[in-house]
Design brief:
The protein is an all-alpha fold. It has helices at about 40-50, 65-70, 80-85, 90-105, 110-120, 125-145, 155-160, 165-175, 180-200, 205-225, 240-255; strands at about 10, 240. It has a two-stranded antiparallel ribbon with strand order 1-2.
Amino acid sequence: MVARTLPHRGGPHPPSGRELPRSGDPRPDSAAAPTEASVGSAELMLMLLADARLPTGAHTQSAGLEPAMRHGVSVAEVPELIAARLATVTAVEAGTAVVARHLAIDGRFDGLAAVDEAWQARTVSPALREASALAARGYLRLLRSLWPAAAGLAALTALRHPCRAVVLGVTAAVSGLSAAQLVRLIGNDDAATIAAAVLKIEPVDPVLTTRWVLEAQPQIERLAARLAPIGTIDEIPALAAPLIEEWAELHATTTQRLFRA
């Protein structure tokens, strides 16, 4: 059943005319992460942002697991759901975040709106958009609190409802994460969110759900290798997962649920 959520590639995205620097290009030091980020290594910042206890409201999300299980996905099929999301909606989010990070490092914050619009164009489900905007609010609050002088905060605030990918991209630039680390963060977060949500829905051994996240790591690494080098809006993946999107819409209308999405 989950196999039907595997990637559907849309047609070519119309050229945006917004060429952004490639990942290997030199970038001005003035747009790099603020001095606050220098107090810890990128590895420590990655662990901080990947911590499930981070106060971003992530506990309200199941990464689509609850609606999927409501519509017939079994516990045994959850690893397939993780893989399907990594190949579709998570790839779109990670690619969007990488481009937002490039812009933030370059100090080109006026381009963040276009990146946000590109993600919106690739995410047809209003329910998925709403869930992303809700998660973005938590990360934006965190960014304001931890790095109050960070460049880019004004641009993010000016966006009406930025998606989580754009906020995470700016956060990655501020905290010193590389593009590859950013993709790993997003990929691991999606897999771990599903694994944690299973434990609230079904009586599953936590060691089993941890194994699912571990087994997803090779796919996450391939995603990082593919997406870390991208530098333009047109290179953001344009992928769809019809069942994931349909389940998200149905879940948004139910009044009996454990998770928002």
